[in-house]
Amino acid sequence: MLTRTIRPRLPLLLTALLAPLAALADTPPATQGEGALQLIGETARISVGYARGGHFQGELMGVLHEGSDSAWLGEGWFSQSAGGLQLSYHRSVNDEVRKYFIALDQNQKHDRKLTVGTGLEQADWFGNLYLSHGLSGKRLLEQASISTVTEQAGNVAGRPYLDTVTTTTTTKLFERAYEYGLGLRVGHYFADNGLRITSGFDYEWGRQDARQSSLSVAAEKFFIGTPHSIALQLEHSRKTGAAEIKRNDNRAVLSYRYSFGKPNSQPERLYRMVAETRPVAAPKVIPARTEHKLVKTTASMRSDAFFLLGSTTLTDVARSELDKVAALLKNGGREGNIHIVGHTCDLGSDAVNMKLSIKRAEAVREYLLANGAVPADVVVLEGKGEREPKYPAEAATREKNRRVELEFVSVLEKDEEITVPAQTLLAEEAPLSYRREVVEQEPVWLRLALRTPATHKRTVDVYRSKEETRTESRSRSWTNRAPQAVADSYDVLAGSTTAFAVLGNDVDPDSGDTLKLVSVSAPSQGQVSLDGNRLVYQAPAAFNGEVAFSYTVEDSHGATATGNVTVRIGAGQSGPNRAPQAGNDNATTGRNQPVDIAVLANDSDADGDALTLTVATPAHGSAQVQGNQVRYTPATDFVGEDSFSYTVSDGRGGQTSATVRVLVLSSANAAPMARDDSYSVSGVFPRFIAVMENDSDPDGDTTDIVSLTQPVGGSGTVSISGKNIYFVPAHTFLQDTFTYTISDGKGGLSTATVTLIDP
Fold first, then answer.
1. Domain total for the chain?
2. Alpha-carbon distance 162 to 259, whole Å?
3. Which residues form the signal peptide (predicted)?
């Protein structure tokens, strides 16, 4: 009996697809990512922050140019009127990224500083060092002055004086940015947590030993796979310096940041799908032959949909294909085990996909067992998850990878001899398949380092400095000395009236003082009266003998002296006639303005004779006798000094001459105007009184206080201090007064009264 034995081996490929058009897509994607996402830095970022103290700040950062091993970055920030700019250049050298930057920052008061620095970043740490220099000058904050008044006594040529010395100390307080600064930043990026921590130290210094030390820490949390991150920066600083008020400061800024531009993360592993074909053998010619042959046949099944996404339930199409396989197993012989392998697509985790692939293989086994196609002990199950994809993992072809492969050997025995004719075996069409190839990526930390700028202390802090200046002013008041009244004696006739020029021999030790008669005592015989600066004595008609009385003379500052006068009264002329005494005179007038000069005011006759007056002609004007005065009229437009002489005669042959000098000014001087004042003062604390604020001079001349009197009620003492009067109280009081006199420096004087009230 001729027996033909056929032993076919039939592999079964079960593939499940999601989309019916997936079979049309044969082109794999360029790359595929796998594993956790990792941060590679931002190419553009905008942030908004809230700073301690209640103000907001914004920030914009971007990569200006980026290459494989270098990058240019720009940054800008602003908060109210403060802000700054930073330009950075980063370059990769060996296993590190070197960083260089320059920054210009400004505070709200427009103080500026320039910062330059360099840094280094490696896989495990980063750091940078920088120097800063203040660009702004000092700014005046406030100014205060304190004045102290002291008195110094002395004398010049025997004349005592008292200087009032006012010392004014002016203190100015300035503010300016620190001239120099040194900063350091170090930190670490915790990739597992997406957290970048930076710590820093800054030391800044300026003039007058001004110093500031600052400690800072910054943390930024990245939500990897999203454009969002948040940052918190804390800083504590301490200042030293003689002018500082607030020495400690704490700052905090909380920011939200949003990145845009290129992606800021990449997958842990990157693959690409590579198409490949197996080589095809050349056509083979087999000659005709007779042989006994055992034929092994391998069959495979394909279907458009076996399993849906995440499912282990057989589809109707899959059941139909498995029914054909079951019929083949029942009707034919079988050799060896049945191998069933389950697969999944790349969606889902590895652990889930592995379990899912095994359950799909079990579903095929249970279906075959239920149909009685195979015994349970010959089925071998295996699950491979997503590890052996047949097609690219993209939307168009991904569902083909959700499949189950089934393979077994079926044996049909028939003993026969067959004649095999000669045949030529053509090469099969080369099958096309894909494999995953790992794409090499640069280290994640490298791109992150190239895109992350080095940080520095942006705040432009300032320090305070003080400058003190002292100025001293003096006002001198001469101590007034009392005049000296020299005793006088006269001979007169009984019943006569005689004028005595008693001031003719009186003197004042202080040059410039003028004397005047202020009082005269009553004589024992006769009568005496004041007539300007003369005493007029009327002798009794029936008396012969000596009469004595006194008079009081006063200088320009109120000092007085008493002189004695002795009058010898005779019945007739007693002795020879004595010539009168004439004193020189001075006068001042303005251009083209006449002036009356009382030339006899300082003349006298010892015999009491009446005097007559004659004048000579001046060189630059005219002079005329007007009663007891001389009227001088300057020549037209004459300015300068002129003089003339006059002669007095007593009518009995006695005569004397004197000279009058007249100073003609370009304009006539008008006396200043001192006005009365009233002030509320303390009976406890000293005070400067600006009495001249309401005083004036018609000619616009500069006026000064030349004298004053002490308060009449004894409430305290007053002294001249420049244009002011310095009042030192002795005790509390109700009201008191004193007077002061001002001068225009041209002979014009004016006196006013000051009323003090202690409220």
1. 5
2. 81
3. 1-25
Whole-Å CA distances, 710 to 191, 672, 684: 90, 22, 18
- Alpha-carbon distance of 735 to 713, in angstroms, equals 8
Which CA distances in Å does 476 have to 199, 318, 666, 695, 750?
67, 127, 30, 21, 19
- Please tell me which residue, 592 or 418, carries the higher pLDDT value: 592
Is residue 86 scored above 60 in pLDDT? yes
3-state secondary structure of 686: coil
Rounded Cα–Cα distance for residues 532 and 537 (Å): 13
Pair 610, 525 in one domain: no
* Nearby residues of 309 by Cβ (< 8 Å), 6 or more positions away: 18, 345, 347, 399, 402
Residues ≥6 apart with Cβ < 8 Å to 379: 337, 338, 340, 365, 368, 369
User: What is the C-alpha to C-alpha distance for residues 162 and 720, in angstroms, rounded to an integer?
Assistant: 10
Which comes out higher in pLDDT, residue 686 or 200?
A: 200
Distances (CA, A) of 234 to 223, 228, 530, 605: 21, 21, 94, 103
Specify the CATH number for the domain of residue 620.
2.60.40.10
Q: Which of 609, 642, 665 is the last residue of a domain?
A: 665
Vertex 225: Cα angle to 219 and 231 (nearest 5):
15
- Starting at the edge strand that comes first in sequence, how are the strands of the sheet with 612-615 ordered? 585-590, 655-665, 640-649, 612-615
Evaluate whether 724 touches 690 at the Cβ level (below 8 Å): yes
Q: Which domain holds residue 692?
A: 677-757
Please determine, for residue 7, whether its predicted confidence score (pLDDT) is greater than 50: no
Which pLDDT band holds residue 332 (cuts at 50, 70, 90)?
low
Q: Check pLDDT > 90 for residue 29.
A: no
Q: Inform me whether the pLDDT recorded for 460 exceeds 80.
A: yes
Eight-state DSSP code of residue 173? E
Phi-psi group of 668: left, alpha or beta (phi > 0 → left; psi -120 to 50 → alpha; rest → beta): beta
Q: Is the Cβ–Cβ distance between 415 and 292 less than 8 Å?
A: yes
534: β partners: 531
Q: In this structure, are 301 and 226 located in the same domain? A: no
Domain end point (choices 630, 665, 700): 665
Mean pLDDT of the 439-448 span: 87
Provide the β-strand partners of residue 127. Answer: 120, 186
Are residue 69 and residue 180 in the same domain, yes or no?
yes
Please tell me the distance from the alpha carbon of residue 402 to that of residue 310, in angstroms, as a whole number: 9
Same domain, 504 and 609: no
What is the phi-psi region of residue 191: left when phi exceeds 0, alpha when psi lies from -120 to 50, beta otherwise?
Answer: alpha
Q: What is the value of pTM for the model shown?
A: 0.47
| Region 406-423 average pLDDT | 69
Do 566 and 584 lie in a common domain? no
263 lies in the same domain as 235? yes
SS3 percent helix, strand, coil of the chain, rounded to 5, is 10, 55, 35
